[in-house]
Amino acid sequence: MSEDQNPSGDGKGQTREQHKHSAEIGSRNPYQNPDGGVTTTGHVWDDDLADFNNQPPRWWMLGLAASAIWVVVYWLYYPSVPVPTSNTFFKGVGGWSAIKEMEADKGEVDAVRGKYEAKLKDMTPAAILADNDLTEYVKRSGKVLFGDNCAPCHGTNGVGTKDKEGLFAPVLNDDDWLYGGKIDDIYTTISGGRQGMMVAHKDSLSETQIIDVAKYVKALSEGKGDSEPAGKKVFMESDCTACHGADAKGVQAMGSANLTDTIWRFDGSLEGIKHTVAYGVNSGDPKARVAIMPNFKEAGKLSDADIKKLAVYVYKFGGGQADAPAAPAAPAQAAAEAAAPAVAAK
Ligand code: HEC
Ligand code: HEC
Predict the structure, then answer these.
(1) I need a surface site. Which of 132, 173, 265, 319 has the fewest CB within 10 A?
(2) Which residue lies with its CA nearest to atom 19 of ligand 1?
(3) Is the pLDDT of residue 20 over 80?
(4) Which residues have C-beta within 8 Å of that of residue 188, sequence separation ≥ 6?
(5) Ligand 1 pocket, mutate which of 148, 154, 197 (most atoms under 8 A from CB)
(6) What is the pTM of this model?
């Protein structure tokens, strides 16, 4: 490219090129590559680096024009720039809005859900559970309901949450139930709330008695209750059996814990057990353990259909217990049948 080199050798070759370029543009392109063929823009760097001066392909030019037109159409059709026009802004000629789109989408979802929701509204929780389709639906749709209302205390999927006193709220995905794991028990728990109450014993029992009985309870959970006769005596002779039963396995009607298993709701160390016995649970004592399952029906936070769905959802965590085959099954069965005509009528 000898013709592009600056004869004065002052290192300003590019300046000279640019000048020459603007002077001669429009006439014959003088930057024909001497090696033949391709023209260049005339800019040269580093002695021999030059820009080719090719026309963009035709399809590309058409595409460019089309997209320019598309921009205008799009701009007019949708709400674009918030140009004020009489109190409001230009909303686009298409009448599109995000709310309308959302409502249309929601309509689609509701149409699918609607048929399930209408069906389960009049069914008992047991009947819903007996229907595979509905149970499948509830397992999917209950996730959000549980996540919003229950997971803060019970953990995602009911794994429970802990605080320094032990479990803040019970694990729901095991088969250990304070209030029972039958579908109707779970429904009752959710709709009415629960607050297990254990009185404080710091005044009714001596310090030694509290230590003894705590040792006994700990031994019970390890399967060796008989190794603590002094504590056993306290347990049998004070009020413990009235709530926990003589076998210490708990009474579901009261939500009194099973003391013979290895599952601890509160701190299960000797110190922790002493604390529970001395101050009680929901006893009103400032140091009492607190255990409050809110009443969702009263709070108006959930509809009855939501509560039924949650009961089935919780049951399906895996810990749900089938109704006993004989007598207890009958009411649920009858209820399911009673619900059936209502469903068929829809
Ligand atoms: C504010 C915290 C909190 C929220 C929110 C909460 N729970 Fe509870 N839940 C508890 C506590 C605490 C207990 C234990 C009550 C007791 O020991 O007397 C409990 C007990 C239960 C039980 C009984 C467990 C058993 O072993 O018998 C079920 C079932 C249950 N909750 C389900 C739910 C569902 C479903 C929701 C959501 C609608 C929910 N809970 C929301 C705190 C909560
Ligand atoms: C008025 C009824 C009542 C009496 C009396 C009572 N308890 Fe309880 N106890 C409960 C209830 C209800 C719970 C479960 C609280 C909860 O989880 O909501 C409980 C829980 C416990 C716990 C905690 C279990 C855990 O999993 O952390 C221990 C330990 C315990 N009781 C021991 C005793 C002993 C020992 C006595 C006798 C000195 C006694 N209780 C008397 C009702 C009672």
Answers:
(1) 132
(2) 293
(3) no
(4) 179
(5) 154
(6) 0.71
